[in-house]
């Protein structure tokens, strides 16, 4: 699961990283956001969305994306 | 009048909360693994780092056995106060609207803050004589956020109880919000720590009125006046 701050909500971590990159010589960087990655093995992939809704993400302030990696 | 003060692994402000509550009534600690609230008339969810703040502050604590009882207690109209991490737990439990996000300055910040009492006729502020309180705040995840529609509903229902005074909003909270209550008015959460400001010896006793208000509300309810609960 990739969990990100919802668009439009201030993301001070992303902004701090965006300010740091040009200082290291990386130009042309914009829209930096810092989120979380949760990896897990699960028997029933149908459980992942309710897991995100109930615990892994806070849907009021975070968006999540489910990436399945075969078996 | 008895307060029940929760203690999770990682809680650190439960003793100050207990001692503050004892200045206005009886109080005892309730361990996170227990479901029995031991006849408490009001619950305090104190500050700290419950379950290590893993995942998100309050995210795991909100599913603890004691919280199941607290959620049921709140739904029956019982008074629940959440301070700092306790506020985060109550938001995660959806007993309060909105969420707490990392401070805009990305730093753990500890300072005395001036607060304005936006709603003085609540179960948590009815004994506050001054419209301005000086209380310490110390946190890194204190930026209150709710979307515009939620904020409009909260304003219409007088749910914004405490605000940072002008120039005091160090964490970047939306609309300078420092403390909110639920629509029914029996659950209240704030980021600053009233339990650390109950004696002039430590610089301010302004926090005591929050606990005194709860006592007044509980005793009013027992007398059948239903005062502000």
Structural class of chain B: alpha/beta
Q: How does the major sheet of chain A shape up?
A: 3 strands, antiparallel
Kindly report the average pLDDT value of chain A. 94
Q: Percent of residues of chain B in helical segments?
A: 10-25%
Spans of at least 5 consecutive residues with low confidence of chain B: none
Helix content of chain A: 25-40%
Biggest protein-protein interface? A-B, 11 and 19 residues
How would you sum up the global shape of chain A?
A: elongated
- The N- and C-terminal alpha carbons of chain B lie at a distance of 15 Å
- Overall average residue pLDDT of chain B: 95
TL;DR?
The complex is a heterodimer of chains A (71) and B (229). Chain A has helices spanning 12-23, 48-56; strands spanning 2-5, 36-37, 62-65. By secondary structure, chain A is α+β, with helices and mostly antiparallel strands.
Characterization of the model:
The complex is a heterodimer of chains A (71) and B (229). Chain A has 71 residues and is an alpha+beta fold. Chain A contains 2 helices and 3 strands; from the N terminus they run E-H-E-H-E. In chain A, strands 2-1-3 form a 3-stranded antiparallel sheet, with no helix packed on it. Chain A is elongated. The mean pLDDT of chain A is 94. Chain B is of the alpha/beta class and 229 residues long. Chain B has helices at 14-22, 65-75, 85-92, 148-156, 208-222, and strands spanning 2-7, 26-31, 42-45, 79-83, 99-101, 109-117, 132-139, 143-145, 160-164, 177-181, 187-190. In chain B, the strands form 2 sheets. A 9-stranded mixed sheet of chain B has the order 2-1-3-4-11-10-9-6-7, sandwiched between helices. A two-stranded antiparallel ribbon of chain B has the order 5-8. In chain B, strand 3 (42-45), helix 2 (65-75) and strand 4 (79-83) form a beta-alpha-beta unit. The longest helix of chain B has 15 residues, at 208-222. Chain B is globular, with a radius of gyration of 16 Å. The mean pLDDT of chain B is 95. The A-B interface holds A 5, 9-10, 12-13, 16, 55-56, 58, 60-61 and B 55-56, 59-60, 63, 92, 98-99, 101-106, 143, 145-147, 172.
């Amino acid at each position: 699961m990739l969990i990100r701050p919802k668009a439009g909500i201030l993301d001070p971590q992303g902004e701090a990283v965006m300010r740091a990159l040009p200082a290291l010589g990386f130009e042309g960087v914009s829209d930096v956001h810092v989120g979380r990655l949760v990896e897990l093995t699960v028997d029933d992939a149908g459980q992942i969305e309710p897991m995100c809704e109930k615990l892994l993400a806070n849907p009021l302030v975070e968006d999540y994306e489910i990436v399945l990696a075969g078996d | 009048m008895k307060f029940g003060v929760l203690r999770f692994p990682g809680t650190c402000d439960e003793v100050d909360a207990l001692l503050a509550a004892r200045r206005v009534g009886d109080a005892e600690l309730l361990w996170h693994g227990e479901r029995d609230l031991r006849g408490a008339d009001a619950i305090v969810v104190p500050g700290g780092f419950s379950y290590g703040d893993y995942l998100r502050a309050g995210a795991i604590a909100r599913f603890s056995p004691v919280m199941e009882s607290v959620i049921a207690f709140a739904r029956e109209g019982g008074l629940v106060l959440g301070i700092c991490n306790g506020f985060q737990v109550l938001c995660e439990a959806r007993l309060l609207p909105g969420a707490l996000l990392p401070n805009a300055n990305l730093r753990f910040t500890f300072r005395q803050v001036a607060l304005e009492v936006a709603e003085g006729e609540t179960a948590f502020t009815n004994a506050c004589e001054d419209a301005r309180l000086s209380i310490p705040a110390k946190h890194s995840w204190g930026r209150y956020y709710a979307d515009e529609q939620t904020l409009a509903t909260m304003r219409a229902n007088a749910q914004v109880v405490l605000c940072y005074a002008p120039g005091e909003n160090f964490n970047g909270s939306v609309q300078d919000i420092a403390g909110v209550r639920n629509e029914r008015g029996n659950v209240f959460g704030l980021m600053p720590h009233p339990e650390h400001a109950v004696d002039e010896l430590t610089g301010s006793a302004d926090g005591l009125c929050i606990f005194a208000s709860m006592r007044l509300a509980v005793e009013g309810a027992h007398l059948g006046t239903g005062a502000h609960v």
